[in-house]
Amino acid sequence: MKYLIFGLAILALGFTACNSNSDKKTEEAHKMSQQEMKDMNMHDSMGVTPAKTSSESVNISSIVTNYLHMKNAFAKDDSKEAGASGEEMVKAFTGFNKAALTPDQAKIYNDVEDDAREHAEHIGSNAGNIKHQREHFDMLSKDIYQLVKTFGGGQKLYYDHCPMYNDGKGANWLSETKEIANPYLGKAMPNCGTVKEELK
Amino acid sequence: MWYGERRIKVKSMNLKKKILLGLITCFVLMQFIQPARNESDKVMPTDIQMIYAVPDKVLKVLQISCYDCHSNNTHYPWHSFIQPGAWLMASHIKNGKAMLNFSQFGELSNRKQLSKLQGIINQVKDGEMPILSYTLIHRNAVLKPAQKAILINWAALVKDSITAKN
Questions:
Q1: What is the DSSP letter of A49?
Q2: What parts of chain B have a pLDDT lower than 50?
Q3: What is the structure's pLDDT at A48?
Q4: Fewer CB within 10 A of the terminal residue: chain B, N end or C end?
């Protein structure tokens, strides 16, 4: 009987330890979301985000900016930096104002976002594993291309092609410069690739 | 003096014994808390087999090497009932299904299906899946080169059929 009580005591201790842990986590998550909200409000008051009316064109520039940042990090073989932009991109998706979208646009946007967000999350959580990050970047690039084609990138962009990646199956990416800086092969083959399409 | 030392020794022996017995009791009690099983005998209409052709040889590889964590039906070995291993396994299954669930593959958009299939190709090619923590115990789930090729070719074929459809 004594031992049973002892055992139960240890078990109880274990459970309370677990519980307080998860409480802490939710608390942190709460704090973070509050911070994010503050950030968003600040942006609004500073006039960074334009006034949103349905007649105005949809602005995906925050998503594109994070994508280009990530692309440049991959070109430098910087896995950590790419991961950080992945996390920023997830925030950009969360902060994106869908209210300005027409039903048809919303359909395309939601379809793309559902997929792209997961790739951005994976790139964010896999800092240190650049091979895996690049696999997701390949798929993410297709999604961002679709977004830019639908809503416009807000700046001149180039759709580039690398014939060597994926065991010769090739892969594409978006760039803000006409000069090639290959994000798939990085410093090993920085100039490999061609411009496939110019996007205004 | 000598008597006192002996008493302390006896006392500490008792404490050790108590802790050991306490831990054993703990271990026994843990066995009664079993996580919910991931088992289902019905095939969902969104199962990958219902929407795309899955040849028998492919299905066999999927069942042995993938379905324990990526479907609604896990095959539980006898040792999976021993805690705390069962909790660990339950968390593996939860994470695995969140990433990819062959039993409900049809719930995904075409775009996501294409991504998941490419993910399968990448992960199998890189030797990342099935994960080491799983194959350490499930030795028969390790993919041989021929089985890898079967999976990769099949996933590529399904990908092409989705692209052609749209």
A1: S
A2: none
A3: 41
A4: N
Residues in chain A, total: 200
Sign of CA dihedral A129, A130, A132, A133: positive
- The secondary structure of chain A as a DSSP string is -HHHHHHHHHHHHHHHHHHHHHHHHHHHHHHHHHHHHHHHHHHHHHT-SPP--TTSPP--HHHHHHHHHHHHHHHTT-HHHHHHHHHHHHHHHHH--GGGS-HHHHHHHHHHHHHHHHHHHHHHHTTT-HHHHHHHHHHHHHHHHHHHHHH--SS-EEEEEESSTTTTT-EEEEESSSS---TTTGGGSTT--EEEEEE-
Question: Which run of H or E residues covers position A96?
Answer: none
Residue A139 in contact with partner chain B when CB distance is under 8 A: yes
List the single residue in A with minimal CA-CA distance to B14: A3
Chain A residues touching B22 at Cβ < 8 A: 3, 6-7, 9-10
Question: Which residue from B21, B24, B111 is facing A115, i.e. has the nearest CB?
Answer: B111
The list of chain A residues with pLDDT below 50 reads 1-2, 4-55
Q: How far is CA B65 from CA A17, A179, A188, B58, B94, in A?
A: 36, 44, 35, 11, 16
Tell me the ipTM for this assembly: 0.73
User: Cβ(B126)–Cβ(A132) under 8 Å?
Assistant: yes
Residue identified by tokens 């411009």 is A195
Which of A2, A6, A131 faces B126 most closely, judged by CB atoms? A131
Using the Cβ of B91 and the Cβ atoms of chain A, whether some distance falls under 8 Å is answered with no
Identify the pLDDT of residue B142. Answer: 92
B110 C-beta neighbours (distance < 10 Å), count? 13
Q: Which site among B25, B32, B124 would you substitute to test the A interface, given the most A Cβ atoms closer than 10 Å to its Cβ?
A: B25
Q: Name the DSSP class of A178.
A: S
Residue A18 contacts B, CB cutoff 8 Å: no
Q: Which residues pair with A172 in a beta bridge?
A: A161
Which chain B residues touch A119 with a CB distance below 8 Å?
115
pLDDT at A172 (0 to 100): 93
A113 backbone φψ class: left, alpha, beta (φ>0; ψ -120 to 50): alpha
Terminal C-alpha separation, chain B: 91
